[in-house]
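Lecture notes, structural biology module. Today: joint structure prediction for complexes of two components.
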Amino acid sequence: MGYSGSTGGSPRQAQDCLVYLDHAATTPMLPEAIAVMTAELAQLGNPSSLHNAGRRARRVVEESREQIAEAYGARPSEVVFTSGGTEADNLAVKGLYWARRAADPRRARVLVAAVEHHAVLDSAQWLAAHEGAEVDWLPVDATGELPAETLTARIGTAPDTVALVSVMWANNEVGTIQPIADLAAVAREYKIPFHTDAVQAAGQVAVNFAASGVDALTITGHKIGGPVGAGALLLARGIEPVPVMHGGGQERDVRSGTLDAPAIAAFATAAQIAVKRRDEEAARLAGLRDDLIRQVMAAVPDAILNGAPPGPGRLPANAHFSFPGCEGDALLMLLDAKGIACSTGSACTAGVAQPSHVLLAMGADEARARGSLRFTLGTTSTPADVAALGAVIGEVVDRARRAGKS
Amino acid sequence: MPAVPGSPDGAAMTMRVLAAMSGGVDSAVAAARAVDAGHEVTGVHLALSSNPRSYRSGARGCCTLEDARDARRAADVIGIPFYVWDMAERFDADVVADFVAEYARGRTPNPCLRCNEKIKFAAVLDRAVALGFDAVCTGHYARLDNGRLRRSADAAKDQSYVLAVLNREQLARAMFPLGDSTKEEVRAEAARRGLAVASKPDSHDVCFIPDGDTRGFLAGRLGSAPGAIVDQDGTVLGSHDGSYAFTIGQRKGLRVGTPAGDGRPRYVLDIQPVSGTVTVGPAESLDVREITGQRPVWTGCPPPHGPHGCLVQVRAHGEALPAQAALDGDLLRIRLASATRGVAPGQAAVLYDGDAVLGSATITATA
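The predicted structure, tokenised, for the full assembly:
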């Protein structure tokens, strides 16, 4: 859900200096992306139109396609623009399932990591409920990692019954990075299409579509400094999912809908900049993140750092803790009142936090899953943000403990 | 703007206030008034249903996604932070299960009263205090006067009856900013403030029975439990599928074929939950002069060990009747000045001195 508290006119909420530690929910747009987008918003033309105005808009889209392809190691023809990560995940999971099932009715199994984002998780569950799929949840270890041997074992002796595999590149809650190339190699061995949701990874670690060996890869603009509403599914040649949305067939006949040239241009600008600055920024954020972990552990010695240890197995901008004896929503509210935005990192129904399926899959009990908070850094994060959290987290946890589990 | 009660000696004092926002007009205006009074207010919508995924039309409860959205929008307009608190498990255990169990015992519970006692001014209040809040604000129509609960200015909307179960500690942390206003004034104020809920219909049903079919809801929870309908002589007049479908004083829906000997209407006089026997008879047999209550609460006067002259109200929106009340150990004994009808065990007996609440108890027996 991310930062959901309303901001209005009351004195307490009128703080201009928000400490924003929720970049995994959405990132501030880069000034360069805003400039490109606002300029393009003033232009006329449907990229599918054949006249001059249409050709001008098409040129913007195609240049953006090339920039995104270059940023993520794909060919331009492999970039299928979508409205964002959720649509790209739906297209990959449902579309590949339908295509594979139509070609061979035995392929009913969908192998999905238990820690996936709901866009993948719920798509797979929907296929099971309505399309005769059999979902095989791939278990993770206590750090959230899915070892390649687990996938090999699950494919087992019946590779001909698998429609597709979907494993996220990096987890949106606990930041654990999966051995994607190893997992993709296992799937490739059995000629099973492999999809990965790289929405969280794309801005923070090297994501190279061709080198990774995956067949389909989801990215989205607003997690890397671009706008909400523009994303893409990178689709290898020869991988043709059945469309989810039908219409004009604008994107390789697998995705229909008028292309949003201003948002796509801003997405491409953000992708270029994010990739260019990535190594330097990742090192800076990892340093800040390590400092955040030190400060939180110093203030709350019994806090538990969830996910992989800091290092190559974890997103550099992610820190995720369980605070024993606390409810995550009480912690979030108390920090929000102090101008610090973070997330319980879990799904919502009418705004009600459910215990995180990610932590449960990692073997946490329900209390530990409920008492957790995610802090994620980004381009605008500073040591002062980390210090602001470090200054209050101790008293906030004390207070939330007094409120207990309700 | 009426002063917001709750601060000792009425002095202006800034408090941290948690406003319970149902998504209706009353709680929205109450929260806005608390802000106007200078308090630091945070809005909270209580998710009480374990399955809130439905948008309903028609009768309104307090458990839908639509209500959560309405509450969020009201908080936006007022300009306060807003959160949803999941109280579904507590609500199910303390209110819904109690409601079902009371009917199974042949009693007639009031779930709103139980929700105030166990959820809004217990689970929610406790959590609010632990998180640093000073008070819980609701849109109830009642007044607080130096910690004493009084009827609201709008007699037709008065909700002091469903709040009279609160003890002194609970009342000390309560804030009812609407007590001096009429419903019409509150709706007009909501419109002036730009709150979209200004014209939202009032809720009347039990919020966890959205279709209003209490009998069907109980049948689903308690199953079929057939029993006899008898007259005062024990003559069997008919049968029923579950005694929980009846309330003392009920006249309609008895489905007793033969008319009474004297041709006069018959009413439910008694419900025996174990045998399932429902006794019916003439209206005068409903006359009650003595009421016994358990779990007495005293907030408006010292506990009366001798007979204490007062008024007693035995159901929501009922009349206040002259009576003498006295404590007898853990029980409250009430003697009415003149007989009344339709007193159902499970309801609260609330004692008043004029418009001030003295105390309350849950009715267990009548004579």
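Point to remember: DSSP finds eight helices and 17 strands in chain B.
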